[in-house]
Amino acid sequence: MLHWIRTQFAEAKDLVTKQYQNGNTILQLAYIDSLCDESKIMEAISVPFSRNQQPFIDIVKASPEFNSLENTIEWSPAILRGFVLLYLEGKYYSYDAARVIREVGPNAQVESAIQGPQTALSEDLKDCLNIVRNRYPSLDLKVEEKTAGTLSKTRLIMLFDKMRVDPQQLQMVRDKLTGISSEVLQSAGELGKQLVNERKHFFPTVLITERPDRICSALSEGKIVIMMQGTMFAVILPVTFYDFMYAMDDKYEAYWMTRLLLFMRYTSIILTIILPALYISVVSYNPELFRIQLAFSIAGSRSAVPYPSFIEVFLMLFMIETLIEASVRLPRYIGSTATTVGGLILGQAAQQAGLVSSIMIIVTSVVAIANFVIPINSMSFSIRFLKYPLIVLSIFFGLTGVAVGLFACIVYLSGLRSFGKPYFRLLGSAIRKQQSDIGQVKTN
């Protein structure tokens, strides 16, 4: 039995196989460590077998917790559900020793969901693996354990579905993990930077998440997941631009509602990137693009502003960026209140003092709100930065500079790769279909 189990779970580093002997009686055990409770195994199997008060076979036959297994087909599903397989006196039995984590880990806070699961990953690597295995109980799920950091010796586990993963990508990730030269590795963000060799990318090429449902969805699409000890975040790769725009709630909503939300997110990206640059371009270079009533209204609101429009834009954006950073660093209970009150007071005071126009306050508010629509925080940071090069171009070249800047951004995204895969994919249906076809071909 042990040879068969080791063959089936050859790449599962959390597989435990043991053999006990008490006199002439031999007991063989096989189970997955991350799915089972060691205390249950000790109390129900190890300790009673070592005692000579009563033959252990009699305990097994008399207890309803031990079930006889007649067919080897039942072995793998039983192990993946947290059962212990026993071989005793020529017969096979299973014992339920599952360790199901309920309300132990914290709730997801960075990626919140309305209808989806609320539990996040844990900082304990064994608990993380338990959560993922319970949600993805597939024999094709493989686990590889490694260490990174010459001083910290941080434990890492790499998860992938062997029937769906791309072998070339898998080997590439293995080489990257082997080549990590950092002395201390403490977070998933540091790991992500090491995997991309700290290249100066504008956009993230690995996805960092705390949600088990996103991890299981990524595994089913042939992606690779890396989790590490001491952090409740996992790294998913390779990724596309669409993965950062996709919220897990999209799985639980109706089809057209999901498409509407995606359209709203992409529209929000366009607004937060180009709206400040367009304001400068139109006010300074091309006011004729507006209807005459709107042009007079904007000119009237800026009549008391003593400096050019680009200084006005930089002043308001600096205030907004400062408020966002303060909301992150302040304690949770006062952060939202302080930043909300500060934003209202500063905006109203700046407008009444003639430092900024009322139109600029509207533009800044739209930019800030639109940026928060993006589901993944790392992409939100990139989008926040991207508007500044366009602002600089709009100062010197107007609408022409904005158009050229957008074109350059699209060209840059089109040439970007995430571990050899094209990055700039706006929709995810094609890549999911491709991964499904690969899995079916490998299965056949």
Descriptive notes:
- There is one protein chain.
- Mean pLDDT is 83; it is low at 430-444.
- The protein has helices spanning 2-8, 38-50, 56-62, 75-80, 125-135, 167-178, 188-195, 212-220, 241-245, 255-284, 292-301, 309-329, 332-352, 358-371, 377-397, 399-415, 429-443, and strands at 15-22, 25-32, 66-68, 83-88, 91-96, 141-148, 154-161, 207-209, 224-228, 234-237, 417-418, 421-422.
- The strands form three sheets. The chain has a five-stranded antiparallel beta sheet, sandwiched between helices. It has a five-stranded antiparallel beta sheet with strand order 6-7-9-10-8, sandwiched between helices. Strands 11-12 form a two-stranded antiparallel sheet.
- The two termini are 27 Å apart.
- It is elongated, with a radius of gyration of 28 Å.
- It contains 17 helices and twelve strands.
- The protein is of the alpha+beta class and 444 residues long.
- Strand 11 and strand 12 (421-422) form a beta hairpin.
